[in-house]
Specification:
Elements (H helix, E strand, L loop, with lengths): L1 H16 L7 E9 L4 E8 L6 E10 L4 E2 L4 E3 L2 E4 L1 E8 L9 E12 L6 H9 L3 H7 L6 H29 L3 H44 L9 H6 L4 E4 L3 E4 L24
Antiparallel strand pairs: 1-2, 2-7, 3-4, 3-6, 3-8, 5-7, 8-9, 8-10
Helix pairs in contact: 2-3, 2-5, 3-5, 4-5
Length: 271
C-alpha cells in the first residue's frame, strides 16, 4: 500500500510538469473610439512579460480595402507579451472618417535574438564579414578586400621606405642622396595614408555592425530576406477581429451621474 501511495505521489506531479505549454495566440481584439483616438485592444495570450514581438496592425473595410493608419502608437511595433495591449490610432491626423464596420488584423512576429559578439569578432577578422549576415548583402565583403589591400600596400611601402632611407644614409653619391631621401619620405607618407584608410574601414565596419543590429531589432530596415527573421517567421501569430463598428464622427460618452437627494435628516443633539 505504501509503495502504491509513493508511486502516485511521484506520478501526479510528474504529469503536471509534463503537460504541454499552451500555444501563444492573439485574442480579444476590440476597438473603442474616445473622441481623439480609436483605441485598439488585443491580448497576447500565453506569452511571458519578457517575450518581445513586433506587432503589425492593419485595419480594413468589410470588402478588404486597407485603411491608412500612419499614426499608430502605443502597443504597435516592438511590444512585450501579456494581456490588455493597447494601440492608439489618431484617425483625425490621418484624415480618415468612418461610420462603418471594420476589421482589425493583428500580426505578432517574435523579435529574434541577434547576437552582437560573433558579428563584431568576424568584422575584427575581416571587415564586412560581420555586417554581411545582418544586411544580407555580399557587397559588404568588398570592404575586407579593400582594407587588406590598403594594409598590404602600406606594409610594402614601409619596407621600401626603410630600404631607401638606409641607402640614403650610406650613399656616397651626392647626386642620388636627395632623390633617395624624397622617395623614402613619400613612401613613408603613403604608408601612413594607406594604413589610415585600412583602420578607418575597420572602425566603420565595427560601428556598422552596432547600427545595423539596432535597426534590425526595431525593424527600421526591410527584414523579408534577413537570416534571423526568416527563422522566427514561422512562429508568427496572427488574428482578425470580428466586424467592429467604428464611428469617428460621433463619440459615445458615458452617462453623467445623477445626483440623488438624501431623505435622511441629521439633527444636532442638544447640549
Amino acid at each position: 500500500m505504501k509503495n502504491i501511495i509513493s508511486l502516485l505521489l511521484f506520478i501526479i506531479p510528474l504529469s503536471v510538469f509534463c503537460q504541454p505549454k499552451a500555444k501563444p495566440e492573439i485574442r480579444n481584439i476590440n476597438c473603442v473610439n474616445d473622441g481623439k483616438y480609436a483605441i485598439l485592444f488585443y491580448d497576447l495570450e500565453n506569452t511571458a512579460k519578457n517575450d518581445k514581438y513586433f506587432v503589425e496592425i492593419k485595419i480594413t473595410h468589410a470588402n478588404g480595402t486597407v485603411i491608412k493608419t500612419r499614426t499608430l502608437s502605443g502597443d504597435a511595433g516592438v511590444v512585450y507579451g501579456g494581456l490588455q495591449r493597447k494601440a492608439f490610432w489618431n484617425y483625425k491626423a490621418d484624415s480618415v472618417g468612418l461610420k462603418d464596420d471594420i476589421f482589425v488584423n493583428v500580426k505578432a512576429t517574435p523579435v529574434p535574438e541577434i547576437p552582437l559578439a560573433p558579428h563584431l569578432l568576424k568584422s575584427l577578422i575581416y571587415p564586412g564579414w560581420g555586417s554581411q549576415k545582418l544586411s544580407n548583402n555580399k557587397k559588404s565583403l568588398a570592404l575586407g578586400g579593400l582594407s587588406y589591400a590598403c594594409l598590404a600596400s602600406g606594409i610594402i611601402l614601409n619596407i621600401a621606405s626603410a630600404a631607401n632611407y638606409e641607402a640614403y644614409k650610406s650613399s656616397t653619391d651626392f647626386s642620388k642622396v636627395d632623390a633617395l631621401y624624397k622617395r623614402s619620405l613619400l613612401q613613408k607618407n603613403l604608408f601612413f595614408a594607406l594604413t589610415g584608410v585600412a583602420s578607418a574601414i575597420w572602425v566603420y565596419d565595427l560601428f556598422n555592425v552596432f547600427h545595423k543590429r539596432a535597426l534590425l531589432l526595431k525593424r527600421k530596415v526591410p527584414v523579408d530576406n534577413n537570416y534571423y527573421y526568416k527563422n522566427v517567421e514561422k512562429q508568427s501569430l496572427s488574428a482578425v477581429s470580428k466586424p467592429l463598428f467604428l464611428n469617428t464622427f460621433d463619440v459615445v460618452k458615458p452617462p453623467k451621474p445623477e445626483l440623488i437627494e438624501a431623505s435622511v435628516k441629521f439633527e444636532m443633539p442638544e447640549l
